[in-house]
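Session log. Operator J.P. requested a structure for one protein chain; no other inputs attached. Running the standard single-chain path with token output.
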Amino acid sequence: MRTGNDYLAALDDGRAVYVDGEKVATMAEHPAFSGVVRTMASVYDAAALPDSPLVDPETGNLAIFTIPYTREQHDLRKRCLEAWSRMTHGFIGRGPDHVAGLLAGFASNPAMFDTEAHQLGETVVAYHRKAAAEGLWISNSIVPPQMNMQDPTSRVKPVELVEETDEGIFVHGAMMLGTGAAVADGIFVSSIRPLAPTESDRALSFVVPVATEGLTLICRRPYATSGSDFDYPLSTRFDETDAMVTFDNVLVPWESVFAVGEVPVINNQFFGTAAHQIGNLQSIIRLTAKLEFLTGVASRIVSANGRDSDMAIRGQLAELSTVHTVSKALTESAHAFAEQDEFGVYRPAGQYLYAALGMQTEVYPRAVKMLGELAGGGVIQVPSSVEDFSDEAETVAMDLLMGSDQLPVRDRVKLFKLAWDMVGTEFAGRHVQYERFYSGSAPVVRALAHRFYPFAAAEASVDEFLGTY
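Structure written below.
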């Protein structure tokens, strides 16, 4: 079983990751990444403990890679994902637990990847087996960069095939985003957007190690460097970092190529297999954990302000807790009503899974707004940093502002700084935007909810009633 030290050592591979105009020399020590790296190392260490809920006892591998052929395996994956999300409070969206589900789904129907031109089904199975055995963190980059189609001077080029060789395929271009890619082992690259028949050059599905020659990651501004963990408790631990991904004639060996030049394969890989459904069970479990944590912070804030007996405030807390409860109920239903597909794989029930994902675009921003309203000016009535407590005169002054034996000044500041890192910092703003587009634009996600809702059954109820008079 991979340990935290194994993970840390794997990051020292010469990858081309750029922050603030400089190539990062040592990932685990760079302030932009050290926090999230420590967090993920602790998760790997937790998996290495005896009887860890993160491990499949049959294989000894992380249970996130388990293909759920039985109800027991389906339950095991859920328990594992819940334990994983509790350790990160849902703030790491593209950790190892996400793409692992996609790979398991692909491997459940390898025939999907066998065509007249390329027989890559066994490659898919072998890569899934390798990733599971090594406990790899595979991130993904499946959306092309934004581009202005009306601009004839645009040089934006989504990643596309250059040529096929005996060694593998050469690809060139860019992808919009690789969340967590800078600190992952590899990147799954494909297109979540359905491709037109003429886009065969962009019909690609492969995994590439982050340290591959010609692969460059350009990171957005890191939030982990904002300050101490006291002042930015979430930013310093859970900033998984988003990176723009560029490929300069990169060679991808055949052993990690799943599809090339086959538009039908790309358009069917997520839903022609169990990948999208078992992969996104992680998404709604993670969101539910995040909403529970946010609700807990809100409840603590209300208690700190002595408003927990105020009926209006209780109503606001009830509204916030309802958001979490609905998310949890949909998650439980998606799991409980799962059925085996034609390949024997338990797929979470689409009706509930995609209802939860459809809510995601609205409920998390709404929950953050409610937390901000409950916190009020308290998130601003805090000193600039933990260093303010080192000055005795200043500490005495702060006692006039917030002093209490029930909730000492330092504890109050700590709580409200946590709330601020959820509602007002750059980290907070990124998470609101991230959850809005986590599964794509709202119309795309609603289309999936529409696709999986049993309208026929609802209409049959109406027809039966109409037939009674």
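Operator note: The chain has two domains: 4-268, 277-457.
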